[in-house]
Amino acid sequence: MVGLQWKRRARVMLTLLSASVCLVMLIFCIWWPSVTDLIEVEKCPACYGVSLCPAITRGLLTVDTFGSVAGFVNILGSKNVLFGMLGNQKVVLKKLGHAKELVNLDSIICEEANLGSSCHVNEAIWQQGDLIHSIRQHVANQGGGLLLCPTVVNMDHLLSNVFYKNKDIGVKVLHANIWTSIMINPEPLLLQVLPEQDGWPVAKYLGACGRVVVEEYAGEMLTSYHNAPWLQRANFAYQLLIAAHNFTDSHPLFGFYLTDISADNIALDSHGRLRFVDLENVIIVDRNAPVEDRPLSWNVPHVSETYDCDGCFAFSAQAICSHSRSDHNFYAVCQLLMTGTTVCRMVLRCLEISNL
């Protein structure tokens, strides 16, 4: 008798659970944002660009409603990272900031224009003054996630790829797009400065429409491979050190130092290649800075201070900017992604000997 009652209760609970799941899925479908809702193209040119807008108009870009639990979590947390399809290609859609950050940007634009409640961001952006001057101020003081040092005189050289890839866009509009990215998140700019097509270990940038950028889906995060076979993990370590070298030395003019390296910011693609998928926080050192702008320690390689504990990590932006080269990328990879400080000390010792 007791067993029969238990079975009845179990059936009732299972029915209620199924009904709850169906209800959640229905609400999810109703409230899940459409691509049109996401892009906010009416705010352009205070946006990231419009290169992908024709594809959206033709219905080629769609949001994947149930393809990822991460997408649902991100919507709830206002991280604004979603998955979708661009034609037959799996992609990631990013608004590049929390909802509050985007609202704050609109408020800044409207306050500067003194337009109050009648403000339209697409018009107010033109009253921000000299946008290039504002961009230089932000990258010189790390007003956002990007710091260019020890001087910003060569900023145009840094962004030359961005200007070239968007040469069909009016200069003033492009400046507004760049300003918006700098204010919120410089990732789309850096993905054009360091394009995947040229061999950089980053996600492939596909374009933007309004306040959404689209990147090629680079694979599962490295956090999913903690229990991978030793040989595969050794290959990961090798790739990470090569990436650290590339970011430091492979660009002819600038060194790129990533300050937010973690396993959940790195993906493994279908070819077994690691891809850095979050480039929001980067220090860029202009190795060809004018002589008069170079600190006294410029020609002395910068060596990071290490700690005798796994995962301990600290850095000084000022110290990195005071030297033409730094071991920061290797230090970050060793301290944050490799097991044990012994490996870290060995690698850093090798770099010190080789005078990076």
Automatic annotation (TrEMBL):
A Gene Ontology term for the protein's cellular component: extracellular region
Keywords: Membrane, Secreted, Signal, Transmembrane, Transmembrane helix
Transmembrane segments: 12-33
Keyword DNA damage: no
Family affiliation: Belongs to the DIPK family.
FAM69 protein-kinase domain ranges (all copies): 179-339
The protein's name: FAM69 protein-kinase domain-containing protein
Keyword Cell division tagged: no
One Pfam family named in its UniProt record: PIP49_C
Organism: Cryptotermes secundus
Localization annotation: Secreted
